[in-house]
Amino acid sequence: MYDQLRILEKMILDIKKQYQLVSAELSSLKQHPVSDPQELAALTTKLNTSHSERDSAKKQLNDLDKRYQSLAEAHHMIGEEQDKLQKQVSQLQQQKPVTATK
To answer: How far is Cα 56 from Cα 45, in angstroms, rounded to an integer?
Structure first.
């Protein structure tokens, strides 16, 4: 029984030692993380690509907004012109002498 307790005590000491080593390594990694250069390069490329896509989408949105504004203005001007022409038609119809049918 005494031998078993000694073996158990040795196992506990080994586990504590291993725990301390792992804990020290973890602490070191937290203070000075090691990054994978390939993963970092891939993430940087992905970030730059998404920024480019975002900028492109913004430009496209601005272009579409300008086009919309231009079309809205043209529509308004056409509406005004149509109103003027409609008034002229009404005036001409009122000025038109009524001719008797033969």
So the answer is: 16
Q: What's the predicted TM-score (pTM) here?
A: 0.50
| CA 20 to centroid of chain Cα atoms | 45
Cα-based torsion angle of the residue sequence 18, 24, 26, 28 in order, rounded to the nearest 10 degrees = -150
pLDDT in tens, 22-68: 999 999 988 888 788 899 999 999 999 999 999 999 999 999 999 99
Per-residue pLDDT tens digits for 74-84: 999 999 999 99
Ranges of H-type helices in the chain:
2-31, 37-95
Q: Which two tokens stand for residue 36?
A: 């994978």
Q: Give the burial string for 35-74 (b: 16+ CB within 10 Å, else e).
A: eeeeeeeeeeeeeeeeeeeeeeeeeeeeeeeeeeeeeeee
| Residue count (the chain) | 102
